[in-house]
From TrEMBL:
Residues that span the membrane, as ranges: 12-30, 36-56
Keywords assigned: Membrane, Transmembrane, Transmembrane helix
InterPro entries, per database record: DUF8028
Name this polypeptide is given: Uncharacterized protein
Length: 63
């Protein structure tokens, strides 16, 4: 496994699972600027992780 493929794998799974963190933020409410900033940071990290991890393949290519 290449170091680049490890980063891709981690980014893919982070981008896939990070939206689960949105629920506690929604449940506690976005009633302050710090909560809103947290929410925007989560979205930014999620978008970045999806961009980096979009080429991830679950199984190695065999030739």
């Amino acid at each position: 496994m290449h170091p680049g493929s490890t980063v891709t794998m981690i980014s893919f799974w982070l981008g896939t699972l990070l939206p689960l963190v949105y629920f506690p933020v929604f449940l506690t409410g976005i009633d302050s600027m710090s909560r809103f900033s947290l929410f925007l940071a989560l979205i930014a990290v999620n978008i970045l992780a999806l961009i980096i991890g979009h080429n991830y393949q679950n199984s190695p290519i065999r030739e």
